[in-house]
Structures
1.
Amino acid sequence: MARTAQEAAQLGALLNKKYRYFDYKWDLVFWVTALPVVAAAADITKLLFAGDWDFWTDWKDRQWWMTITPFAMIIIPSALQYIQWLAWKFPTGCTYTAVGLWLVSWLGRWLQWDVFVNYPLNFVWPATIVPAAIFTDWILLKTRSFIMTSILGGLAFTIGFWVANYITLAPFLQPVDLMGSIVTLADVQGVSYLRSATPEYLRMIEHGTLRSFLEETTLVALVFGATLCTFGYWVGQAIARWLAIWPIMRFMKKV
Amino acid sequence: MATRIAVDERAPVKARYGPIDWMGGWKTCVWGSLAIVVLTALHWWYTSRFAWTAGIDASSPEFTKYFRSLVWVQLIVIGAGTGLWWGWLVRTGRQLLAVKVTPDEEVRRIAVFWGLISMTSITLYVMASFWPNQDGSWHQTAIRDTALTPAHIPMFYWWFPGGITMTVGTYLYGRYRLPKVYGPDKGFPWSFFFLIAASVTEMMQVAFNEWAHSLWILEEIFAAPFHWPFVTYGWLASGIFALWAETIIRLLGIEKEVEDAAAASPAR
């Protein structure tokens, strides 16, 4: 929609307005200092809802990893997407969170898993959601609708999650012979490195008959994962609307 | 009287640096945030250096020397430090409430407040992401631990209570230094209610976590249901966004007041 000359003049005046106290530092401080708490919220949500699938290469399976992890990992990006869209009309919340999560995940894996206890990083690398988050932000930009973003974005987030991480995971899915059995390279990592507090992992993953779908196995899991992801998106929206935005300038009455 | 003098003597600081200079109002943000990062690094180095040589057997003299002593040092320092800081904020703040402040001073205080939010943000990251990663790696290589093991000691007895120290301390700063936003006459803000609730419930959840591990499951499966309250309590920290919004609204108000005052006295 074209602006009128009056609107353009008002906008120009607003853009060129000289402030006494507002400068770039307020923006810089906000965007930098919000990142730790945002990344922490995203990381703790991932760790305690789906952490086991994110910690180990051999847990990155087609049954639980790609269904549970996108659900856990879209919650906080969705919250930030709402906040940044509401405040600035920036379609950047998911990507902002994803970059923060990427930073703290790698810092945690490097210092606490690799340096502290000597697990190799190619066994404990964290999944990335940066490409999936860019897709989801792009969908909000194009649709300008949280409902559409929850449906299309949930699907895009899950597929983006799988595609982006499959590139890293694929080499570890190569078959190898281990003591007469054909297993994946990831399985070899799993039995080679001590995990004293993760027993019975073979009982927890790949049970049931999902494999009977043969070449559709991944597709079925992805679409179900997208359904969960849409639900997770609205959990994030609820967090942003009721816990971050609703409290602004609200006070409990004095007793 | 000494407290009053200290309050009054803050004025010369303003003359050297403006309220929005990095070494003026933003000094708390810069140095405070850096201090927490350095403290985290030192804590991590200490744990990494001694965990595997002195931290395995809680009945050994080495454990007492390097880790049981650390628990006591942490508890004493954070307990005393928190009491002194909160006490200072309340004691000086009650007097400041009666003092009319200039726009420059109020803006400086908002910048300090944002600095405290920054320190809170980093503290919440360290307690909710950095140390839980070490906790996970420790569980996977040592056997099930107790409430007093090298990975738990920094997290449970420094950073978790540190979260309460920072969130409540930031509120006390706002209550007495920014009365037009959080003054006692306005009631208790929901933003701080959620943020403080996040840090307090996380601390309380630690006890349930240990109790539940002892009852139901010895292994450390991270996605176990009794870990989920850590997540939902953590979401309460979203109230931190309302703090930025509430103070930026006040900042806009100050800008408007300064503009109006300038317009009312054109000869100035």
2.
Amino acid sequence: MNEPSLRKFYAWFTALGLLVGLLVIAGYYKDEFREWKTYQTQFRQEELRRATTPQQKLLAENTPVQIRQILLPELHRVDRCTTCHLAVDDPSYGGYAQPLAYHPLSDQHPFEKFGCTVCHRGQGRATTVADAHGNVPHWDEPMLPLRYIQASCGQCHQAADNPAAPELARGQQLFDDSGCRGCHKLNGVGGIIGPELDKVGARRSPEWLRQHFLAPSSVTPGSAMPPQKFAETNLEAITLFMLSLTGEPVPGYYASMKVIPSSSQGRRLFEQKGCIACHAVGGVGGKIGPALDDVGLRRKPEWMIQHFRNPQAVSPGTVMPQFGFTESEARALTDFLVHLRDQKVALSLPALMNPVERGRAAFRKYGCIGCHGPDGKGGVPNPNAKTAEQVPGLLYVADGYTKAELKARILDGQKEITALDPKRPPPPLYMPAWRGTINDAEVDDLVAYLFSLKPKGDDVGF
Amino acid sequence: MNTPLPQRLWQRFTRTRVGRSIFRVGLPQSKLERSQAMVSSFLLHVQPAKVNRHSLRAGYTLGLGLITLYLFLILIGTGVLLMFYYVPSTQQAYDGMKDLQFVVSAGLLIRNMHRWAAHLMVLFVMLHLGRVFYTGAYKQPREFNWLVGVGLFLLTLALSFTGYLLPWDQLAFWAITVGTSIAGYAPVVGQKLRFLMLGGHTVGQEALIRFYALHVIVLPALAVLMIGVHFWRVRKDGGLSRPDEPGDVVGQVELGQVPTNKTYGLMELAQGTTPQVGKNPEDEVFAWPHLVFRELLLFLLVVAVLLFLAIFWNAPLEEFANPIHPPNPAKAPWYFLGLQELVSYSAFWGGVVVPGLLVTALAALPYLDRGCRGVGRWFARERIVANTVFTICVLAAIVFTLIGSFFRGPNWGWVEPWQKPPVVTEGH
């Protein structure tokens, strides 16, 4: 039998073996030469350039080239940003260009506790620029543009409490004043015409939000939302506030850190704890304790904090009980009282208000203004509604309804709005039923407020 | 004779005390040693000492079965490496994928190889099945091995499908949601079956741990066993199928009729039947080196192709699985897209009757198609009816799979792949 030579096989083995070898080498190179290593080399060279003593040179030379990461188990994150941003915690790198820039940071947010992505977003586990900054397909959280960075403060802190985030506070104010809650629920309070906003900041991009405010139906076809005529600065502020609504849970350690002792938090505490029962402010309140209008002039802040901790310690024989305030609560209350005079704060204490005032507060709280306009003057467009294609104003409800009828209308709503032209699409806005959201006492107050809207001396007087 | 260097080195090694203890036979020189090389080696002894020239023709087998085996071995190797990093938890699985990509040395390369090898294995099992059909190789005495092969085909699909869920991204989650709901269309048992697969009514942690256990131990162990049986039967059924040649009838013969011109045989068998392996010894060549070297070369080729794919194309990884945000359309893995297309016409016919009939027909095929002619040749004229019917089925499967893959857009509506996909705007 003719046995062919093995030479042919050896040639094939050599060729294919070389091919596999080359591919293995190619695979190794692709795996070994990673983007972040060039940044670490750049950092090392900078360190070497700056080194003045032999010890510093040695240190710089011996810095290992390796992945750096911040493990944040409570936040379910691993942030590898410092693999490239190597000088974030070194003030001597202030003014350097990225990736070697220093990141100024207050002591309240140490890197090892907060990492980076919890504020800046992006993809913490990634180690390439494109992937880490998150502008890649299949990653939902690209980095937040720096002009919206205050939104991240709002993930944990009350917007109004944070002096470092004025735009955030302004955004929230706009949200409350514009009556967004008339249609949208936030933290369980609000209407049902639009979607809940609790996680809107994680779902939507800044561009989407801006576009949506200006022309809702251009990004959400068929949206019932009327276009919002925000000026540019307000548009940015309300977009920023929306971005703060990520719904990300604030876990243990972070929850304990999230209260910023501020004047506005002090005010909320003052209202909630019922201080007014014993102390008067602006002539309103109890007389058991001293009036507090000018307490900031009489007492030093240190004294007040001591007093909140243990009234007897600084004011023997006082009848004020020890309330067990936390340290930050005591500081917040003190802050509030110190500034009471110059702030001329109008305390909104439901117990001290008359029904009409309480109703006005509820009108604002539930966002009725969003559709019925400021002070119920109406005018928000509702295409194809029989009422002049607008949401009707409320100035004259006292003429058309009894109090019981009005109450029923608020609680049960009106789903069907009569169309002007039956051939066109039905009017998008309608009166939602508020039963279950607004409690009975609040409805009574609302009715009282709405009845008070009728202009004085405007009675036709049949 | 001028011996090549590797050969000389190998010879020197096998003459040492250690080398001889391992390999028993050195690099074979004589015909005796060539036979011994095969018979005395654990890894090689599943193959005969001599093989028919016809079986070595690349144009006959195309190496499809062997390629499938190599892909399976590579899958085991890369799969074990992936297991060192993978945690079958809905909270950690996806992060593990990201870590493989971004921080594990060669992690992405290994995952890519595993992914592409898995897809290719499904493909090559199908191609191998086609080859066996078109050459009539399932006919007597190889009926049972065809049946084992059909089982291995289904097992491969199951292996790929269970692996599909493990990255726990949107692609995985929704492909498995769609795939298992196709199973749910079966009458009476469908929903129970789906519940059994998922360990619940929806895809969640229970489904993940089930799919993981099936994927890494149950199904691979079964596959190893059945591959063993498959190969064993190839030997016992008389080697690869061959065309009838004058004086070379492959078939079971009574032992009393064992031909005298056989070059080897099982001496212990005294009664019953034994396969008759080639009456023409001159048509046979020694497995070493003619078969073994070809096999090794093919292995190198498969490794090269896989490495190439893995270096230049990354395995897909979408967003973290989100049960409340289905992609539109949600698609099953590609090998089930033909089924999904059929299901879109009728859940019962497409999801139950057609696949049920297909599998039954495949399994029953060698017992229905009993003619003995046209074995061992591609597209034999004698088998024109069977080949036509099979081709129609294959073409239909390809067409439906292509439609499901490329022509279906949002809400399973018709789209043309070369057109810009319609912008899907989400409502509130």
